Amino acid sequence: MIKFKRILFPTDFSPSAAHALDFAISLALEHESELLLLHVIEDISFNSPFTLSTFPSLVEYQDSMDAKIREELHKVISDQIRRQIPVEEILARGKPFLEIVRVAREKQADLIVIPTHSHPGLKHSHLGATAERVVRKSLCPVLVVRHPDTQFAMP
């Protein structure tokens, strides 16, 4: 029998992520796994030494943003669930798909449960861009969860 010890769940706090979280929690409970809850902040190239030294308020802004995101991460999983499974909250910066794959490798995740955000009308893409890249690059299995309200265009 396959046993998942660590399940990585990347979230962007969207309705699709909230839906996919139910799958991650269910699997974590069933397998008595640790749930690694990840949010990735995508950097927007303000990190040159000139920019950071010229605008110290940018660093203050990032610090306050980090604190707010950590609060949101903590709210994602109820205290009741936290009493049943261990939860580690992780905040990363960079390209989401790269950080998801990196964290999965570093934390030795056995499974990634990821929401997809495909947009109606896109005939060539059945997965969201981040989910598709994670599937292609991940060393561990990936469960992609589509929100039930998402419609796909048929060819």
Written overview of the protein:
- The chain has 155 residues and is of the alpha/beta class.
- Helices cover 45% and strands 20% of the residues.
- It contains 6 helices and 5 strands, in the order E-H-E-H-H-H-E-H-E-H-E.
- Strands 3-2-1-4-5 form a 5-stranded parallel β-sheet, with helices on both faces.
- Strand 1 (6-10), helix 1 (15-31) and strand 2 form a beta-alpha-beta unit.
- Helix 5 runs parallel beside helix 6 (129-137).
- The longest helix is centred in the middle third of the chain and has 21 residues, at 56-76.
- It starts with 5 loop residues before the first strand and ends in a 9-residue tail after the last strand.
Number of helices: 6
Rg over alpha carbons: 17 Å
Main sheet specs: 5 strands, parallel
> Tally of extended strands?
5
Global structural class: alpha/beta
Q: Helix-strand pattern, N to C? A: EHEHHHEHEHE
Estimate the mean pLDDT confidence. Answer: 85
| Overall geometric form | globular
Give the strand line-up of the largest sheet: 3-2-1-4-5
Q: Into which percentage range does the β-strand content fall?
A: 15-25%
What is the helical fraction, as a range of percent?
Answer: 40-55%
Quaternary organisation of the protein chains: single chain
Uncertain regions: pLDDT < 50 for 5+ in a row?
A: 119-126
Q: Could you give the distance between the termini?
A: 38 Å
